[in-house]
Amino acid sequence: MAAPTAARVLRAVPCIRPVPDAIRHLHTTPACLKTQAARVRVGKGDKPVTYEKAHAPHYIAHRKGWLSLHTGNLAGELGAAERAVEDAFLRRFLYGTFPGILADEAVLKRRANLLVICAVLARGLAPAKLYFLVGYAETLLSHFYKCPVRLELQTVPAKVVYKYL
Questions:
Q1: Percentage of the chain surpassing pLDDT 90?
Q2: Which of 19, 103, 140, 152 gets the most CB atoms within 10 Å of its CB?
Q3: What does the DSSP assignment read for the chain?
């Protein structure tokens, strides 16, 4: 059987007709050179903001510190993407384990084989429940990551407000 020729193929393709009154336009918008990610909008001065959220992302290492401390971002180190995914999982796990009482962002520190999680909690739970949740989180995370996990928690009477925006 011979291969179909170009003429047969072109006859088989239905005719493409232009749509009547169809006009092509080029839409352009001006470039917005402002970075708005991870910024809190300034309002009427009634929105409480923590120290971490009050400063823009370009102030990291100048006015505020890193929230994840590890050596994965050094030159030649592997696994930076895996650590970023682990950090996202750990933060979601903490938000679910301590519902509504995390007063500020958690700081994740990796020291050799040890994972240290530092967090500030509002006093919203009874101490017995808090101790149970700490033990639960440490045990579950140490089984997940197959390394020792230590939670360093500090409690405050209410969420810490740095300023109002």
A1: 27
A2: 103
A3: -PPPPHHHHHHHSPPP-PPTT---------------TT-PPP-SS--EE-HHHHS-GGGBTTTB--SEE-STTSTT---HHHHHHHHHHHHHHHHHHSTTTB-S--EEEEETTEEEEEEEEES-S-HHHHHHHHHHHHHHHHHHHTS-EEEEEEEESS----EE-
The letter for the amino acid at 128 is A
For the range 81-90, what are the long-range contacts, defined as Cβ-Cβ under 8 Å and sequence gap of 24 or more?
A: 83/110, 86/145, 90/117, 90/141
For residue range 153-165, list pLDDT tens digits in order.
999 998 888 788 8
Note the residue count of the chain: 165
